[in-house]
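Regression check, adenosine monophosphate case 399:
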Amino acid sequence: MSMLNKKSIENIDVNGKKVLVRCDFNVPLKDGAITDENRLVGALPTIKYLIENGAKVILCSHLGKPKGEAKPELSLAPVAKRLSEMLNKEVVFAADDNVVGKNAKKSVDDMKNSDVVLLQNTRYRKEETKNEENFSKELASLADVFVNDAFGTAHRAHCSTVGVTEFVETSVCGYLIQKELKFLGEAVESPIRPFVAILGGAKVSDKINVINNLLEKVDTLIIGGGMAYTFLKAQGYEIGTSLLEEDKMDYSMEMVKKAEEKGVKLLLPVDHVTGEKFDKETAPVVTEDQNIKEGFMGLDIGPKTAKLYADAVKEAKTVIWNGPMGVFEFENFAKGTIEVAKAMADADATTVIGGGDSAAAVNILGFGDKMTHISTGGGASLEFLEGKELPGIVALNNK
Ligand code: AMP
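Current build output:
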């Protein structure tokens, strides 16, 4: 895969250079305060390396969806403040509504080696998400070198992820992307076997290409969450009022056949925790087997299934997980997801969490530091698992 051979910050000389770093500072905010700092913490190794090696560090990122307008509630000002505290060093915030404006230019002109400047939210500019040349050129005009360290947006061709690389001489990845490429890349391309993938979440339609691609690679594919019911219904089981994508039943059967042909073990739930309503107060009822009674919906995998899945994880040497096993947001229906997370935490294997809801679940449940790698990009890691090339990575210089 051409994505796995990219230069990183360690392969170039950054001393005295103006280095524009695309970070992922898309943090959740409440009343102007950052409620989860994980993404800031994740960005620190690259920023610190550049500071220590005498670069002039110009940071940029998007935050939320201002849709091309300067929305004050989506300003990166709180990030500049918090980063200053974390780095114990001033982070100059260049508060231009047009991102590359008077403040940005002046702040960059005034920089000494190891100084840090943060630009305003790149999505204040409508050109950003359309990858339009003028804004890419403006961004590039500030810098000698471009570093992409925003895995979460690497699957999008935007000015600050792809366009800018055309107008700077050198484009490399930072530590975060390097780590993502190492763990996701190695897991998918050269896994130590047995290789088990666990897919859950709401819909089959979101994961069609992931299922298809992973069936080419894994030894065992485990399916849970809302998407399991379409598979079960297609095989003739009763699923009550569970989530169903009727138009994906044929596809599910194709995947069952493909698994057989490839000799991949495909595991589906053998029991469920059901409820009468999609509601956290609904009483949990465990089924006897795969079938669900009329008027009930499957909201979590059952205890037999959790054991079956945990056993498969225990035997694995590489495990990738994307998507919860049930409605883990409701306490009564979180157990399946917890059991799978536990099995992964205890496994003697390389364990990779593919971003999004499963990453959140693993962190909330306190298993975060037991995993080999938790991807910082939901959409990007899904596209990676689909076998797609991510434009924000393809655009970087090869080794
Ligand atoms: P995704 O974003 O596709 O990973 O889906 C995550 C969402 O799927 C979570 O919000 C879960 O609550 C939801 N989910 C998981 N299992 C079920 C289920 N059995 N029924 C309805 N929603 C589910």
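Comparison notes: The first strand starts at residue 18 and ends at 22. The CA atoms of residues 325 and 337 lie 5 Å apart. No diff flagged against the previous build.
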